[in-house]
Design brief:
This protein is of the alpha+beta class. It has five helices and five strands. Helix 3 packs across helix 5.
Length: 167
């Protein structure tokens, strides 16, 4: 029998159990992430928004783009903040195109828990790279997703791309 070891998923399972059990983290994950870039995988920051790797990714390269200001809804952002948020989204997608070369993307917002948001307190947009055949029997039969690249490796590649744009 083959075994697929994914010990990092235990954090996700424990976090999911806490969230489902009503124990939400006290601090906003997005606000907290801005304080420590590498540990929290923030790889791109603009004046009003930033991009961060999702530490519990649906797929390799799953990124979230968030406003720096702590708001729940798009309507709470100024026009310039909205423009910056979508420019950061566009720049992040271009980086993922270059670094990962996916076949497509799922891009979207989940506003409120009933819409599927795991973090409802801080507006963020998900970018999920997709490849032909990235869903397989593991997802269907075992409710398990295989992620083919470590967060550290992807973070380094994206930071290298950010650096090449500024040189």
């Amino acid at each position: 029998m083959d075994r697929l070891w994914a010990p990092w998923r235990i954090k996700y399972l424990k976090a999911s159990a806490n969230i489902c059990g009503g124990k939400k983290p006290k601090k906003c994950i997005f606000c907290k992430s801005l304080k420590s870039r590498h540990k929290n995988f923030v790889f791109l920051k603009s004046r009003y928004s930033f991009a961060i790797l999702n530490i519990f990714p649906y797929n390799n390269g799953h990124v979230m783009v968030s406003s720096i200001r702590h708001v729940r809804e798009l309507s709470q952002l100024s026009s310039i903040e909205i423009l910056d948020l979508f420019q950061t989204l566009n720049n992040t997608k271009k980086m993922l195109d270059k670094v990962l070369e996916p076949d497509g993307y799922n891009i979207g917002l989940n506003i409120s828990a009933s819409a599927g948001a795991g973090e409802t307190r801080h507006l963020h947009i998900h970018i999920v790279p997709r490849w032909k055949g990235d869903a397989n029997f593991m997802t269907t039969l075992y409710d398990t997703k295989i992620i083919s690249q470590s967060l550290d490796e992807l973070y380094k590649r994206l930071k290298k791309d950010v650096k090449s744009r500024t040189d």
